[in-house]
Amino acid sequence: MSVKIGNIDLGAFPLLLAPMEDVSDPPFRYVCKQGGADMMYTEFISSEGLIRDAAKSRKKLDIFEYERPIGIQIFGSDIESMREATEIATLAGPDLMDINYGCPVKNVACRGAGASLLQDIDKMVKMTEAVVKATHLPVTVKTRLGWDDNTKNVEEVAERLQDIGIQALTIHGRTRAQLYKGEADWALIREIKRNPRVKIPIFGNGDVDSPQKAAAWRMEYEVDGIMIGRAAIGYPWIFREIKHFFETGELMAGPTLEERITACSTHLDKSIEWKGPKVGVFEMRRHYANYFKGLPDFKPYRMLLVKEENIETIHELLDEVADKYAHILPFSEMA
């Protein structure tokens, strides 16, 4: 049976790319879509930024046809601002709107946005209702288990937000207090999935970093799909590998060195295309180490890549990496 959000058919068990600040931009989403992501989200966008027409916030509204289905994710602490931001974001033509009630970082949570709304469910409900009413698009929510271990209130959140019209809920298996530390706890996500009152799709998020874990947790926690974040950084093949494992029960060979270089080059080209040469090259620097994780003695190349500003030279360096490491074992056999 297919998982549906509004009229969006996501197939039997969708794999979603998490919205990650400073990571989930269009160039990164491009390689993840090629790697098999079923649905993606923009980086989270400040509602205040959208209303003030801040260039950085506006730029994050950029979406492309090949990315569909895609959701625009917004966050904020003021209900009216969130309503206005929803209207602005709807005009950018996404397939759905998503609200961030999960971001734990201080300058978001301590300003009354993101995960801090877990401390005020009534306000969260009012804010969500304002967003639902402000758009014709399906609205989804991403949140956490609760603010801390003493206030794991996501079950109440799931019921109340479903009642006012959200059409799917993604739950990160940590509290706000945990940030990204410790292990994600999916047991509470399963409780929500088993709650007879909850009818909307429930997606699990947190710590899924291998096909085996995805398959085991799919069975154990009964979720409708999985959202993957950090494991996709520098490794967009995670989606196709998980799907292959679901279908065959066998592990797919990892990407070859050539595939890694192609993905890295494509990511760089898309980054330059989207942000211009200067910013495009600069923003790509955080990705090189991840694309070549596991290559022996790669550090000197990484140092050269992160310093280099000339696009042609960067491509030459990537060609050099291809030549230098061509003789070694297939990438998938190195660990």
Can you walk through the features of this model?
With 335 residues, the chain is of the alpha/beta class. It folds into 2 domains: 4-248, TIM Barrel (Alpha-Beta Barrel); 257-333, Non-ribosomal Peptide Synthetase Peptidyl Carrier Protein, Chain A, CATH 1.10.1200. 43% of the residues lie in helices and 13% in strands. It has 15 helices and 11 strands. It has helices at residues 26-34, 47-51, 55-59, 79-91, 106-109, 121-134, 154-163, 187-194, 211-221, 238-248, 257-275, 277-284, 288-291, 299-307, 311-325, and strands at residues 4-5, 8-9, 15-17, 40-41, 45-46, 70-75, 96-101, 139-144, 168-172, 202-205, 225-228. Strands 3, 4, 5, 6, 7, 8, 9, 10 and 11 form a 9-stranded parallel beta sheet that branches. A two-stranded antiparallel ribbon has the order 1-2. Strand 6 (70-75), helix 4 and strand 7 form a beta-alpha-beta unit. Helix 1 (26-34) packs antiparallel against helix 11, helix 9 (211-221) crosses helix 10 (238-248) and helix 11 packs antiparallel against helix 12 (277-284). The radius of gyration is 20 Å and the shape is globular. It starts with a strand and ends in a 10-residue tail after the last helix. The model has no long low-confidence stretch (mean pLDDT 91).
